[in-house]
Amino acid sequence: MKEISLKEFEQLENGSYEVIDIRDEAARGYGMIPGAIAISFDGQTEDPIEKIKEIPEGRKLIFYCDFGRKTRDLSDVWEELGKRDCYSLEGGYTGYVCSRITEFADAEEKREKAEKSIQKKYHKQLFAPFAKACKTYRLIEEGDNIAVCISGGKDSMLMAKLFQEIQKHKHCNFELTFLCMDPGYNKENRALGIPLTIFESEIFNAVDTIEKSPCYICARMRRGYLYSKAKELGCNKIALGHHYDDVIETILMGMLHGGQIQTMMPKLHSTNFEGMELIRPLYLVRESDICAWRDYNDLHFLQCACHFTDTCSTCHEDGTTSSKRLETKKLIAQLKAYNPFIEANIFKSVENVNVDRVITYKKNGKRYNFLDEY
Is the pLDDT assigned to residue 224 strictly greater than 90? Predict the structure, then answer.
């Protein structure tokens, strides 16, 4: 399949082409090129070839994946389409996003709009639950030096902006270090519009030869590198961008796939780095509101900029695949159609554990059984 550069793509006239996103549903959740239609080649949906044939003749067909590798290999699709004018978008969605990041990296107006929308339009949806979580779970305390971990995605970027906003309120004195680990990402991904402390690592070299769950190993290693660098810089906490939806999905996945009841905690003491804590300030923030803020400000973020993205689906440190998380997300949405309180009930379930009605439970690594005191 022929390749088209981003510059050539942007010069095409509207109506002369159709953009086709072949990524899976989980990846598309991080954003799509405006106007693109989703046609997956995962074998789980309707025949993609027939769907493409519905597109009017005469239009250029521009396919994109994460990096452009998958679309370059769609020669068999091209054959089935009868030699229609097909192209692979150079760099895929990652290349598109990086070009957009470069465009607005120095745009003061864009940054001001994003910050003002947090203060005004999305104050109730974003800043209020962020501040509530910080107060309820005592995530920010006097004298803290918090390493705000930036991955390049929408969640960590919003978290950084919310931290900047709450620091203006001066309810307590604390310092922020915006920490970004670069284990081999493209340089364009560093243009995030906030004061970053970037440090290098050799994680990709370490996991490159791992065939089973490389992203699981990578995530574990990243966590260790972040703790180590944060402590070196004098920080006592690291902040990660997990949100409310991550929490309830984790609770349900633990029950359905792990046979256990536990939650993603709002804060944790590190077991390997003495004196360090992990905090999750977006604990009460809904993902849909994060997406609304992103889209309102025309911001573009990456799911993952590593070279495993096209081929590996194990991008979660808990070992669950993105497909399992997506299945759980869909299940919750289906249940919500019948019970609008389902999400809140899942969240509250781990706040209302009745130990008198539990057969076995664990505390500090020790297992207790109801028969012990029956």
Answer: no
Length of the chain, in residues: 374
- Give Cα 20 distance to the centre of its chain: 22
Q: Are residues 42 and 175 in the same domain?
A: no
**Residue 167 within any structural domain of the chain:** yes
Q: Let me know whether 205 and 293 are in one domain.
A: yes
**CA–CA distance, 301 with 26 (Å, rounded to integer):** 14
Pick from 276, 237, 27, 39: nearest CA to 153: 27
Q: Which residue carries 């699709």 as its tokens? A: 77
Residue at 362 is within a domain: no
Q: Tens of pLDDT along 40-85?
A: 876 655 778 888 888 888 888 999 988 888 887 777 777 777 778 8
Integer distance in angstroms from the first to the last C-alpha of the chain?
70
Task: Look up residue 278 and give its two tokens.
Answer: 């992990």
Name the token pair of 124: 């109730």
Paired with 20 in beta bridges are 37, 63
Q: How far apart are CA 351 and CA 340, in angstroms?
A: 19
pLDDT on residue 279: 97
**Domain boundary pick from 47, 65, 100:** 100
pLDDT digits (tens, 9 = 90+) for 108-164: 777 888 899 999 999 999 999 999 999 999 999 999 999 999 877 889 989 999 999
**Beta sheet of 196-200, edge-to-edge order:** 196-200, 175-182, 145-149, 237-239, 277-279, 267-269
Residue 15: CATH number of its domain: 3.40.250.10
User: 229 near 200, Cβ under 8 Å?
Assistant: no
Beta-carbon contacts of 4 under 8 Å, excluding residues fewer than 6 positions away, are 62, 87, 88, 89, 90
Of the candidates 202, 198, 209, the one whose C-alpha atom is nearest the C-alpha of residue 183 is: 202
Domain that holds residue 119: 106-330
